[in-house]
Design goal:
Rossmann fold; six-stranded mixed sheet; alpha/beta; 603 residues
């Protein structure tokens, strides 16, 4: 490993936003894969611009290795007027900050693979001027990926990508040489791609090993040891950890003895969601009927979204709707919200259904009001599950400080307006939630708070989202729109969707079949180890794990004895020597376990 970028005691601030970074020192190695997280407005994008030397610090120094090639995807794009996809991807029409005009690329097949992977449709000669913002952003990302670079800096690269596109991008970046820094709120992507996490908080940058799950665990442990501050926030983190450990397998790669230690930390935390109780409450609020579709055909202009579909949604159902961009997810949600009609068939809605539809637009927010007034316009007190909150308390849950409550809605940032939109939606106390891309513009802490609220929300929920983490966290079942007019039940969730989409004759999936997790689990056994050697190595791993368990028990016993004989000086000296010896042996055995575990194939 070689160091390629260094920030030495860097500080940066702006007049309106105030001080963002103070005396920050961090560095990047040539194979670093760093995910950058933090609250909206904390300074994540500013940090990226300084890493790329696009923006200079107020004080301190940023140094690059000589001849370092940096490619940057900023949040705001500036593209040459009249440029085509070919101009941007292969030519010299890219004008965004941090991108040079010279390209090295692997030929048309490689370029086409990247364009297909990102879901860029049409000819290379298609003009970008008439494209949507999402299409233009995907073209810009493709322009970066066809180039060779020593450092790739990406600001929200998963925006406007569907689930399959995010999966393809993760696998592409895992196979790409060079360093990577990425700002994203997609927590699945952070876990899949990143080996380190930087948290921008309180004008500083805290560094952690591992992706989102490891960062969540480490941050919770750091707060637990620091003992005390922000009890409500700590409880939320502990609940998040409980879901991480009890949810989908293989969410982290920690050894078994470390997982046991993490489970001990959360032993008193209840399950993230009491499904049985929520189903019972939902039935009480909704009755037995929510939505019944019989033989429904649904169109979006000339395109057929559903063809003769029969589908039933019941009380307490928590459903994810998956599909590529343009598959019709929004059209389906609008139908259920009463904002559209089927071309054929029947939609019956339960008489007690009170839906709330979260659109992707922000136009319905009252810009003339202040934040708290905008919430109280809907309700001054809100009951969510077994909790009753004032409008101000609900705003606090969504990350709005007391000082921010009197800010005019028109002055809020995009992320803050999205949070307010969600807040007003829940303040209306609906019994059916229809959420269209609810995670857009939300930071990871706000997402965790939202998920905590949804865990105890007793109603029916239908979510259309490309956020894989959210889908797996708050829903219980998934359906897919695969482009053939069917709404397909997916018992296997996102994994099954990716497999089905990849195999679809319509070619909906932008990448070959398989996912990051599947590719990892299907990796061939390391060369140079015979089957007999592999069996012997696994036996040795098992022996080391038994030894570790025994040492852990000895350390607990010694600590108990130390507490018991605290006034006996000679006994304490003897026990302390035994304790240090046991701890040294444990460290040695752990190191041996880790080295051996890296070379032994799964089996």
């Amino acid at each position: 490993m070689a160091n390629i970028v260094n920030l030495d005691r860097v500080s940066k601030g702006y007049g309106a936003a105030g001080q963002l970074l103070t005396d920050v020192s961090v560095g990047l190695d040539d194979d670093a894969r760093v995910g950058i997280v933090g609250l909206n407005g904390a300074g994540k994008s500013t940090l990226l611009r300084m890493l790329a030397k696009i923006e200079e610090p107020d004080s301190g120094r940023v140094t690059h290795r000589r001849d370092l090639r940096v490619a940057t995807l900023p949040q705001t794009l500036t593209l040459a007027p009249g440029a085509t996809v070919r101009d941007l991807v292969l030519g010299t029409a890219w004008l965004a900050e941090g991108m040079g005009a010279e390209h090295e690329w692997a030929g048309d097949a490689g370029v086409r693979a990247i364009l297909d992977g990102l879901g860029v449709q049409g000819s290379l000669d298609s003009p970008v001027g008439s494209m949507s913002g999402g299409e233009r952003r995907r073209v810009a990302l493709a322009a970066l990926l066809v180039r060779e670079a020593d450092l790739l800096i990406l600001d929200e690269p998963t925006n406007h990508l569907d689930v399959a596109g995010v999966d393809w991008l993760a696998r592409h970046l895992l196979g790409r040489r060079g360093a990577l820094t990425v700002v994203t709120h997609d927590r699945w992507f952070l876990d899949a791609v990143c080996t380190a996490t930087w948290e921008v908080v309180d004008e500083s940058v805290q560094t952690y090993e591992g992706g989102y799950a490891a960062w969540t665990l480490a941050r919770a442990e750091r707060q637990r040891l620091a003992a005390a501050a922000e009890a409500r926030r700590q409880n939320l983190l502990r609940k998040e950890i409980a879901w991480l450990r009890r949810g989908p397998p293989a969410r982290t790669s920690k050894p078994r003895f470390r997982i046991e230690a993490a489970n001990a930390l959360i032993a008193d935390v209840p399950p993230a969601r009491d499904t049985v109780s929520l189903q019972r409450l939902a039935t009480t609020r909704l009755g037995k009927q929510v939505y019944d579709l019989e033989g429904v055909t649904l169109n979006a202009g000339p395109k057929t979204i559903l063809q003769d579909v029969t589908w039933q949604v019941g009380p307490g159902d928590r459903i994810a709707v998956l599909g590529v961009n343009g598959a019709g997810k929004t059209t389906l949600l609008r139908l259920l919200a009463g904002l559209g009609t089927p071309a054929d068939g029947t939609l019956r809605t339960g008489s007690t259904v009170r839906p709330a539809f979260l659109s992707q637009e922000l136009a319905e927010l009252p810009g003339r009001l202040r934040l708290l007034e905008a919430v109280e316009e809907v309700a001054k007190r809100v009951r969510l599950g077994d909790r009753e909150l004032s409008a101000a308390q609900l705003a606090e849950v969504f990350g709005f400080t007391e000082r921010r409550l009197w800010t005019p809605v028109s002055d809020l940032s995009g992320g803050e307006r999205r949070r307010l939109q969600l807040l007003r939606l829940l303040a209306g106390e609906p019994n059916v939630l229809l959420l269209d891309e609810p995670t857009n513009d939300l930071d990871t802490d706000t997402l965790a708070a939202l998920e905590d609220l949804l865990d105890s929300w007793p109603g029916t929920m239908i979510v259309a989202s490309h956020d894989r983490y959210l889908v797996e966290r708050v829903t219980d079942t998934a359906y897919g729109l695969l482009g053939d007019g069917r709404l397909v039940h997916l018992p296997g969730g996102v994994e099954e969707y990716l497999t089905r989409a990849s195999a679809s004759p319509q070619g909906l999936a932008p990448a070959p079949a398989g996912t990051v997790a599947a590719a990892s689990s299907a990796a061939p056994e390391p060369t140079g180890m015979s089957a007999g050697e592999a069996r012997a190595a696994r036996k040795e791993l098992a022996r080391l794990e038994r030894r570790l368990a025994k040492l852990e028990g000895q350390i607990v016993e010694i600590n108990e004895s130390l507490a018991e004989h605290g006034s006996d000086y000679e006994k304490v000296v003897e026990l302390d020597a035994r304790l240090q010896a046991a701890q040294r042996e444990r460290a040695e055995v752990e190191e041996n376990w880790l080295e051996l575990a890296e070379s032994v194939p799964e089996g």
